[in-house]
Amino acid sequence: MATTNTRQKRKRGTPTPIELVNRKDDAQFIADHLRPSSPDWNKWTHPKTQEAYGLSLVGAGRLSEADLAACLGLVEETSRADYEPSSMGWKPGQKRAEMRSAELRYLLVRNGKGDIRGFTSLMPTYEEGQPVVYCYEIHLKPELQGTGLGRQLLEYHEHVARHTPTVAKVMLTCFLSNERALAFYRRRGFAKDGLSPEPRKLRFGKVFVPDYVIMSKGVVNVVDDENEADAAAAASS
Ligand SMILES: CC(C)(COP(=O)(O)OP(=O)(O)OC[C@H]1O[C@@H](n2cnc3c(N)ncnc32)[C@H](O)[C@@H]1OP(=O)(O)O)[C@@H](O)C(=O)NCCC(=O)NCCS
């Protein structure tokens, strides 16, 4: 989920570096930004059952209705209990619309029968003016939790961030009630971001206490180095 304004800044006539990235088709996005370290990146074997799973990347606009329904079902299965008592509430229609946001890309995890058993979604975007890769969702069926797959999926967010011009962090939002996920993110180097809301006094003596935290992890962007290396290779050929 994303809680703050994720709309991109637009300068008339000059697309931002992030807008240019979001216009790419999925194959180009994988090649330029996901940049998996192995051609077998789309194959994953369960460490305990040895069952084979497949990974694929697809933009929200190309996600089939059935796949969107499966992803929404997974969010409901793993996280409705966190949404329901929260300030956001569980609003499946709203969540569905957010999940169709044009710039989102999905990494889907399917079993041998083609059923979605896990997914994560991400968006290169501007958050309060900062270029970030926002992790919108990460959800695994119970059989895939505690297998190292969650860590692998989160690492893909860092890959995209490192290889996307101007981006220097991965950002995400987590309910404070979701202690397992909070601990998982902390172990992966995420910490509370400066954009995360603090408790504040409202009028009539009421106090706003946030029930979620915005976390982020800084990454070293390598796009300039890659461009220099490409230019040097082109000059010497
Ligand atoms: C949040 C979530 C994606 C995290 O996934 P996870 O299953 O805890 O994470 P991993 O798959 O990386 O597994 C974690 C542990 O599995 C263990 N593990 C078991 N086999 C492993 C293997 N072959 N390789 C690596 N780790 C392995 C490790 O001890 C690892 O612990 P570590 O983080 O200390 O390294 C998952 O719990 C989930 O889907 N939760 C429900 C939905 C949810 O809450 N989403 C977040 C919303 S904000």
UniProtKB/TrEMBL annotation:
An example Pfam family from this entry, by short name, is Acetyltransf_1
Does this entry carry the keyword Cytoplasm? yes
What PROSITE patterns does this protein's entry cite?
GNAT (PS51186)
Q: Which residues form the N-acetyltransferase domain?
A: 58-220
Note the superkingdom of the native organism: Eukaryota
Question: Does Cytoplasm show up as a keyword for this record?
Answer: yes
The principal location of this protein is: cytoplasm
Q: What is its EC number?
A: 2.3.1.257
**Protein name in UniProt:** N-alpha-acetyltransferase 40
